[in-house]
Amino acid sequence: MYGRVVGVAVVGIRGHIVTVEAHIGRGLPSLTLTGQPGAQALDARDRIRPAVESAGLEWPLRRVVVNLSPGNLRKDGPGLDLPIAMAVMAASAQVPKARLERHAFSGELSLKGSLVATPGVLSVAMAAAARGLAGVVVPEANAAEARLVNGLEVVAAPSLTEVVGFLRGAWKPPDVRSDPQGGATSHSMDFNEVRGQAQARRALEVAAAGGHNVLMVGSPGAGKTMLAKRLPTILPALSRDEALEVTQLHSVAGLLGSSGLVAERPFRTPHHSISLAGLLGGGSGYLRPGEVSLAHHGVLFLDELTEFRRDAIQGLRQPLEDGRVVVTRVSGAVEFPARFTLVAAANPCPCGFQGDPKRICRCEPHRAEVYRQKLSGPLLDRIDIQLSVPRLSKAELLGQEPGEPSASIRERVEVARDRQRHRYRGLRIPCNAQLPGPMARREARLSRTAEGLLARAVESLALTGRGFDRALKVARTIADLAGFEVVEETHLGEALSYRMNLGGEELARAG
Ligand SMILES: Nc1ncnc2c1ncn2[C@@H]1O[C@H](COP(=O)(O)OP(=O)(O)O)[C@@H](O)[C@H]1O
Ligand SMILES: [Mg+2]
Ligand SMILES: [Zn+2]
């Protein structure tokens, strides 16, 4: 007695079609899983029988073998519960085989037979559509994300009972009016709430326009967090494909809930005590994306940068370089997308008040020096824009006009991004920040006076090769914002002002 059902294993954010075959033969009652099931798939063995029996179905009291193929793929995730259960139902002739071939099944079962919210359902639906299947059978809680895939029938079922009813032609999922997908984004925050801080606002506009990473140094209360949180509001809207990728990541992480498309750029703020797995991805059971991937196409905000563990900071280098993160374990390596804008914030010294107009820094010179060295550590050469954010007094805060709203800043950012897209079309370079060094030197064509300024800066600022390339990329962005093809002296001058004097250049050269 034999039954076959299509399931999907999610590896990273990609769904892989898995054929689930069940065979019922002679022998003592047992359930054996073969074909490289992962730890969570193996767990399914204990859940499935009670779930089947709770749904009023019969568990065959014989020897049941379930094989997952292809054999070379390690298959994990709770979503395999449902296809395994259905394969056994098919093998024991409790459901007709007609519709089994046309749908992919995914969903975690509770002991009572209900289908509970399952991570990765969007990836499952995308894989089913790519395979040309007619539809997917998934938990009701995951219906919205599955419906994001065009032309796919979504059978959203509350429990095993309805799935069996559907296959027997006795139950139909309720009709849903598909809601408009990827509607207008509405941010709850706006740059017009930030008073003053002209330089920081401008720096964040440049960062948004070129995709540059930012470091803000300033006393507590200066408004660093407030500014960082508003960066997503001036970034260009997500394209549909980008939004789908972000949604896939949040779904695989189990953070999507019952919502559909994530249409807003993510803003993630991991605490400095976060584990390496939490930041980069990993964990027990199947691999989950970390904060770097949850920030994909959005902003990763590291507040109190100097407090983060060294290995965490080191681990950020790969995603910052490649836009993806590879998580390795004994069972193999899994890759997640992780292209984010990094915004880091730090105090200028341990007490926080060095350079503050109203408060006195009480740090010992030695401790302040150690702190600066920490700040100028391994990440600084990946941060194109570095600036001080001064703390405003109450009078200054009250005296300032409300700032320009995010929407009008975003318009300029989008124009600058269009220029970059046009310039780098066909090159897979999304923005100036991603320009490789040699290309930055070519694409940021300098006017004669800008050439002169650069020559002087190399001397007086002791620019390293990296610092040189960073300044050119930022200057390219500033020229794009101004609508110039040639980089003028003022553009380069502004770019050169976005650097911390921490001795970082010297350290980078020594390292
Ligand atoms: N430029 C500003 N405009 C309006 N409010 C501000 C400004 N700077 C600081 N604030 C107020 O001070 C609070 C603390 O700022 P915050 O961003 O937390 O500072 P930091 O992160 O630098 O310690 C903010 O929540 C905000 O209410
Ligand atoms: Mg803060
Ligand atoms: Zn201090």
Protein architecture, described:
This protein has 20 helices and 18 strands. The protein has 511 residues and is α/β, with parallel strands linked by helices. It has 3 domains: 166 residues, 2-Layer Sandwich (Ribosomal Protein S5, domain 2), CATH 3.30.230.10; 214 residues, Rossmann fold (3-Layer(aba) Sandwich), CATH 3.40.50.300; 77 residues, Helicase, Ruva Protein, domain 3. Strand 15 and strand 16 form a beta hairpin. Helix 15 crosses helix 18. The radius of gyration is 27 Å and the shape is elongated. The C terminus is likely disordered. Bound molecules: adenosine-5'-diphosphate, magnesium ion and zinc ion. Zinc ion binds next to loops.
Brief summary:
The chain is an alpha/beta fold and 511 residues long. The protein has helices at 39-54, 81-91, 121-130, 143-146, 160-167, 198-210, 224-229, 240-252, 276-280, 291-294, 310-315, 317-322, 365-375, 394-399, 406-423, 437-443, 448-460, 465-482, 489-497, 504-510, and strands at 2-11, 14-25, 30-34, 63-69, 103-105, 108-109, 115-116, 135-139, 153-157, 214-217, 267-268, 281-282, 288-289, 299-302, 324-329, 332-337, 341-346, 385-388. It folds into three domains: 2-167, 2-Layer Sandwich (Ribosomal Protein S5, domain 2), CATH 3.30.230.10; 191-404, 3-Layer(aba) Sandwich (Rossmann fold); 435-511, Orthogonal Bundle (Helicase, Ruva Protein, domain 3), CATH 1.10.8.60.
What brief labels describe this structure?
binds zinc ion, 37% helix, disordered C terminus, alpha/beta, Ribosomal Protein S5, domain 2, 511 residues, Helicase, Ruva Protein, domain 3, binds adenosine-5'-diphosphate, 20 helices
